[in-house]
Design goal:
This is ABC-2 type transport system permease protein. The chain crosses the membrane at residues 47-67, 110-130, 151-180, 186-205, 212-230, 264-286, 323-349, 369-392, 413-440, 452-475, 487-512, 532-550. Residues 1-30 are annotated as: Disordered. It comes from Brachybacterium sacelli. 72% of the residues lie in helices and 0% in strands. It has helices at 4-9, 34-44, 46-65, 67-70, 74-86, 88-93, 102-136, 138-142, 151-177, 182-209, 213-237, 249-254, 267-285, 311-348, 352-361, 368-389, 391-398, 400-405, 411-443, 448-460, 463-479, 484-503, 509-515, 530-550. α7 (102-136) packs antiparallel against α11 and α16 (368-389) packs antiparallel against α19. The longest helix has 38 residues, at 311-348.
Length: 557
């Protein structure tokens, strides 16, 4: 069966005798074949493009549309203003607010979610179009066509840059349509576009340094998030550290101040940083061979160890580096959060709104901040679990599954091993998260043993929600293999979007409970042990259905 990629690659074949050669890209100074590769990427990743654009637009427009209902009175706006100035953690993880108007406060809340979603989609798109094609070997096939040496990189950046510009236009028009001031609307839309362009630039550089798609995505997004935390640290510490907000892209975007006397000059360093990253990526690309990276990789041993003779051990071998990096990143960030949060919340635990928030979550006032942060952490950990589970599809498209299944290995055992890995990895990361927060809290003046036990119990209790997504991914791989990635990532996006939307009053809580498994492990929405029985059973049911469906289709699809 001919795949979508194979069909589209026919457009890139060498021209037949008597036909005109490709002229794509020459008129605009891009490498030959760039235009064709852009069309190929648009067709291959059309679901990702649509889902990413809709979720990003929804986060920004949804949060702004709910500004009136989130802060309906002057007292509500004053309370939020006081929270932002009394608890630095909101500034650290979200952004600063420069006015107490409903529009400015809503923009402050949409800043982190909107920029991270925008950057993540751009990073995924660039990584798939560059390193993904090289890893799959398709870039080698295209090397025999009249294709420019760096046409893939140019195509990836062209597509993401244009998508970022279109997102800015849509968001600007949408905000003006719902009655927002045009200047603030344009500023917030430009921040979203800059997040897309910055994410694309970081991924383009990472694609020259590393060979694996997962490594490229991890390095680029980790860099983006570190920049966000540097901005937040400078803003949270205020006097004496505000200069930190002027050395990273997120700080320039924040200082644009949408809906609060915009400062347009901050666009200049932001655009300069994007331009510099794009230029740097092309310079780095010129210094490596096709299929290689600037960071040398180990060739490994010629013969594998005896313990690699099973599928679970092989999966561990493939995933251990990624899992180790994620665990270290989670541990470092959580340790800092635990240490800083313990000291900060001890000063504000007696305030009225903190007590109310603790009552709402069903936790002690001093634990409200940790609960909030841990609930945010569960989404990137779920993303890692989905990426690990989708390894089953990558093995299938790369042909390694066919080699494995040509032996005595049964396909049900092969799929079950991937499902177990998808179940186990998030539990390990959640345990690391709970232990690190507990240790940090202990260093900040708490009790090591009690804090570690309390936070680890809470973090592990979130795992059933991730298992549901893993189970659906296994089922999707068996029923709609080509749509498995789109289905799994879309469900995670829906979970993130509905959680933000329900907090801003954009959608009812009932919708959140119906479409997102994360609602059923959130202490605000559940008060019984029923979800901890039903969610694991549901996950196992999805996996069992996926194993049965896998027996009824051909491999590779």
């Amino acid at each position: 069966m001919t795949s979508v990629e194979d069909r589209d690659h026919t457009a890139l074949r060498a021209p037949a005798a008597g036909t005109r050669p490709l002229k794509a890209g020459r008129r605009v100074g891009l490498p030959p074949g760039t235009r064709q590769l852009v069309r190929l990427a648009m067709r291959r990743d059309r679901v990702l493009l649509v889902a990413w654009s809709m979720i990003t637009t929804g986060i920004v427009l949804g949060g702004m549309a709910a500004a009136g209902t989130t802060y309906p009175t002057a007292q509500d706006r004053a309370d939020r203003w006081e929270q932002l100035h009394s608890v630095p953690m909101f500034v650290l993880f979200q952004s600063r607010a420069f006015s107490d108007t409903a529009e400015a406060l809503a923009a402050q809340q949409a800043f982190a979610g909107g920029t991270m979603c925008a950057a993540l989609g751009a990073i995924l798109l660039v990584a798939r179009t560059t390193r993904g094609e090289e890893s799959a070997g398709r870039r080698d096939l295209l090397a025999g066509t009249p294709l420019g040496r760096r046409a893939d990189l140019a195509a990836a950046l062209t597509l993401t840059m244009v998508t970022g510009a279109l997102l800015a236009i849509v968001i600007t028009c949408g905000l003006i349509a719902i009655g927002m001031p045009w200047a603030g609307s344009l500023a917030l839309a430009l921040i979203t576009a800059l997040a897309v362009w910055t994410g694309a630039g970081l991924a383009a550089i990472a694609a020259q340094l590393l060979t694996g798609v997962g490594g490229v995505v991890g390095l680029a997004f980790a860099t983006f998030y570190v920049f966000h935390l540097i901005r937040g640290a400078g803003a949270a510490m205020e006097e004496g550290a505000l200069w930190l907000t002027r050395v990273v892209p997120q700080g320039w975007w924040e200082n644009l101040r949408p809906f609060a006397d915009e400062r347009w000059w901050t666009l200049l360093p932001a655009l300069a940083a994007v331009t510099l990253s794009v230029v740097a990526s092309f310079h780095l690309a010129a210094r490596r061979d096709l299929g290689r990276s600037l960071v040398p990789t180990s060739r490994g041993r010629e013969h594998g160890a005896w313990w690699l003779r099973s599928v679970p051990s092989l999966l561990w071998r493939l995933d251990r580096a990624s899992l180790t990096v994620w665990a270290l990143a989670v541990a470092v960030i959580a340790l800092a959060i635990g240490y800083i949060g313990a000291d900060t919340m001890s000063a504000y635990a007696d305030t009225e709104w903190v007590r109310a928030m603790g009552t709402d979550l069903g936790v002690a006032p001093e634990d409200t901040f940790f609960t909030y942060v841990i609930l945010v952490f569960v989404f990137p950990i779920a993303g890692h679990a989905l990426y690990a589970t989708l390894q089953i599809r990558r093995e299938e498209t790369a042909g390694t599954a066919e080699l494995l299944l040509s032996g005595p290995l049964r396909r049900r055992t092969w799929a079950l091993a991937h499902a177990i890995a998808g179940f186990l990895y998030p539990v390990l990361l959640l345990i690391v998260l709970g232990i690190a927060v507990g240790i940090g809290s202990g260093l900040g003046g708490g009790h090591y043993g009690a804090d570690i036990a309390r936070f680890t119990t809470f973090t592990v209790s979130l795992a059933p929600a991730i298992w549901v997504l893993v189970g659906i991914t296994i089922l999707a791989h068996s029923v709609v293999p080509r749509r498995a990635a789109a289905v799994s990532w879309s469900l995670l996006g829906i979970g993130i979007f509905t959680e933000i939307a329900v907090k801003t009053g954009l959608v009812p809580e009932l919708l959140f409970l119906l479409v997102s498994p994360f609602a059923h492990v959130n202490p605000h929405y559940q008060a019984t042990w029923t979800p901890y029985v039903l969610l694991p059973l549901l996950s196992v049911g999805f996996v069992a259905a996926g194993l049965l469906a896998l027996r009824r289709r051909d491999l590779p699809a």
